[in-house]
Amino acid sequence: MSEGQVLYAHGDRGFDFYLVLDGQIDLYDECPGDPRRHRHIVTYSRHQYTGELALLNGQTSLVRTVARGGTRVVRLTPAQLRSLLAEEPEIARTVLRSFILRRRSYIQHGVGSLMVAGDPSEGRVLGIITFLRRNGYPFTVIDTRHPEGRTELAGRGVDPGAVLPVVLYGQGEYAADPDPRHLAGLLGLTDTLESGQVFDVAVVGAGPAGLAAAVYAASEGLLTIVIESDAPGGQAGTSSMIENYLGFPLGLSGQSLASRAEVQARKFGARIALPCTVRQLDCSTRPFTLRLDDGNSVRSRTVVVATGAKYRRLNVAGLERFEQNGVHYAATSLEAALCSDAEVVVVGGANSAGQAAVFLSQHAHHVHMLVRGDSLSATLSHYLRERIDAAPRITVHVRTEIAELEGSHCLEQVHWVNRRTGERTVKPVAGAFLMLGAVPNTVWLHGCLDLDTHGFVRVGPEAAPAGGETEDASCWGALQTSVPGVFAVGDVRAGSVKRVASAVGEGAMVISAVHEALANVDRR
Fold first, then answer.
1. CA-wise closest residue to 29 among 140, 195, 174
2. Which residues, in sequence order, are bridge partners of residue 117?
3. CA triplet 246, 488, 451: central angle to 5 degrees?
4. Is omega for the bond preceding 165 within 30 degrees of 0, making it cis?
């Protein structure tokens, strides 16, 4: 190679993998709008190699790679690298571990030129930061609350009248207040779907159940696509710490579990399309057609519904005004930083609320846990009850619910009332974390699948339509919906156990039923 030869630049997609035989390759982080601030990251020499998760995921490069004169390499396309990883497990372990660690380092040091400018405590800024973090994309923040932040923004050529937040990317380009789909397109996170392609299985939802289904389907040779509206992990991805997941005695965060599962699924060749929302499942034709909110469609021979459930919203006046401005539906380090040394409220009595209360008590001055029931004993795991009982910075208020939210721009006070005594309490708080019940994400299934009175998908014998075809009824499995070839797993399923481990188990188990359904289709 010649001196200074660029192997791939920041923003390139479909770039190759290079193993150095002799010579050296330099990596650079390019600073948008200011070439003087380009920084050298690392130099790879003999028997070292380029690449990180963007290569495996089919996303755009975050860095610029430049060869020095006389360098000799082994060059593999992304497809060739995937084949190598599938065939050589020892090499796969080494390469994937280094890819994961490199991405973590990129995130830690803000490599990739992306900057988010605005007030980090403001709802729209928080939404962008949350989207980037949950998708594992590195960035840095320019805090415009401070004069130096506004000066830096102006120095990068941003119009003083631009609507905040502003996202700076590429070589000095910026977008004002982008929504997640626009942002994903700018950053190369989206996957191009080929028209006319038919998948063996389409998994809708990338929570624990959906990702497990994708891993097992792809590893068994099925042409697999996962369609996710936000980020991998689902509701579990917002959990700060899962301590009762088998094999992790020290616990792990929901996002860590999701990111590992995503890498695993992609390693086996699964496609992951995000952010894409399925608006309708057309069950009238075979293959099935999933109509997306961007006007595109995905066709698949089988479908696994894994869209999970979301927390129920409070019926309190003014709630929308405070959402992401003090009212949150997740308790991660991002939200905890906004509540440092202040009082907060956690509403709910299940494990997710308990985990949030324990985590927030490490950052907040005090946590008030509001529970509608008489106690936590019927809804919370024993280990969490013990943790909460022993925590001096957590107070549990039973038979209690929020009555009013107050604040000018962001949430400042919460009123709650004891339903038995009528006693009303007013507290100044920095945040209210709502983790109430479960509302299934099944609006897109109305008119296609049989749902129960709460909107959850019926499966198994109770979903089998009366007078159905004998060959279909004979193979009606525990995860089969009312339409042969369409399955439901995880929290979206009626009667499911709301635990991460059970969701993962169902995602793995459903693939045997998918194989059987595909065999039935082939026999017809």
1. 140
2. 142, 166
3. 130
4. yes
